[in-house]
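ok trying this again, last paste got cut off
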Amino acid sequence: MIQLQVQSPSISQQVSLGSSIYIGQNGIVTVWGRNDMPTQQQQGCRWVIKDPDGIVVEEYPGGGNIDWEFGYTGPGDEQDFIGGRFDFNKVGAYTLKAELFMNPSSPIVVDSYDGDLCTVSTEVPLEYTCPFCGTTFATQEELEAHIKAEHPEEVGKFPWVLAAVIGGGAVLAIAVMKPKKKIRKE
């Protein structure tokens, strides 16, 4: 299994291979190998990530070598291989060529992937910020659920501003939320 973690200044998320992400973030790749053999095995891994221009942005472990685990992986167990951070600073498709090996004395490729890691676009996602604690959320619904769960005493007390913020901190939209007025019956 291969996993990509993407981070921006305010959010960290796991995304699937081939996902669309936004420019200006950084990523880290983790490859898991599971031993499907009935005996313990020693696993190894290597990969190359290229940007849309075909320039290598990460080579793990480097020099075309294979990173062999220290020790062995038991039957049904997994071994992870974690790369270094790299930036998504170009628009287009980033590619990944990864190979998982067993048997260090005579390496055998037991699994591989050669394709898109992700596609980077210039579109910047909205972020919704809690006015009470500053936590950011990807959707307004997540923000509203957070406020009800974490700040119930604040709901309805006074008007508050819901701001949708884009990556660099610029306010894209603002909505003023006001509590409902109580109508007095005479």
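PB: full thing came through this time. The chain is about 5% helix and 50% strand.
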